[in-house]
Design a protein that fits this description.
about 240 residues; alpha+beta; four-stranded antiparallel beta sheet; 8 helices
């Protein structure tokens, strides 16, 4: 077999087994990673990259190493689910960086966190004054969680004793890219006749619709391909 053909086949195989491994390990591996997830992701990526172009090593050796790492990742995830001490060992503990408006420098040094980076993380949480913070905690996956002091939190309807409509379901996607999502209609006891009646009342055709969704409050949001905006903003800022 020509070497370039072998590389192409190996690359396709590497992509396939990496996709299979990611599906087996779940979405956490590609979203919010803890230490074990990071190790698994780096290792699996390295193995599949070598599988794609390192033609000097047999394919079955790569496959063996790949599935060993997948198996170990599954075992550690299972142990973490069953045992809190193991979970703390594998993923680590949350660390408090700010308490009652005061920065805990000892914990900052332990996490190798700088003031600049802390301020950046705070701004991403819409916090520009550290005095407003009751607790700021760095989670095992590296995210910063912020709890503001009561006087700085957003007021809710419950705080004002205002009635709030009950919502018991998620929004339901009805149309995407001009095509009706039939399974969503069936699962929610909705009919094509009901949907076309809504489109007719709003003077739309199915081909006009880019996206339509039934909100939890019962309203149907419809976005058309033609937005009729005189001066659309399409430049970068």
């Amino acid at each position: 077999m020509a070497e370039h053909i072998e590389v192409i086949l190996r690359s396709l195989m590497a992509f396939t087994i990496l996709l299979v491994g990611a599906r087996i390990l779940g979405k956490q591996l590609i979203s919010q990673m803890n230490t074990i997830d990071f190790i698994a992701a780096v290792s699996l990526g390295s193995i599949t990259a070598n599988l794609a172009f390192n033609t000097t090593i047999d394919i079955h050796h790569f496959l063996l190493a790949f599935f060993i790492f997948v198996f170990v990742s599954l075992i550690t995830a299972y142990i973490s689910m069953k045992n809190r001490k193991a979970r703390r060992l594998f993923a680590g503990d949350p660390i408090v960086l700010v308490q009652n408006g005061k920065i805990l420098e000892g914990n900052m040094r332990k996490m190798r966190y700088t003031i600049d980076y802390l301020n950046q993380q705070m701004r991403e949480k819409d916090v520009f004054n550290i005095e407003e913070v009751l607790f700021a905690i760095i989670e095992p996956n590296g995210n910063l969680t912020v709890l503001k002091k009561p006087q700085y939190r957003h007021v809710t309807k419950q705080d004002l004793n205002l009635p709030a409509p009950a919502e018991t379901k998620l929004p339901i996607e009805l149309i995407m890219d001009g095509e009706i999502i039939e399974e969503n209609l069936v699962e929610n006891n909705l009919s094509n006749h009901w949907l076309f009646d809504i489109l007719k009342k709003r003077k739309y055709k199915l081909d006009d619709i880019a996206y339509a969704v039934l909100a939890a409050n019962g309203n149907v949001y419809i976005d058309t391909y033609r937005d009729h905006i005189v001066s659309p903003i399409d430049r970068e800022w």
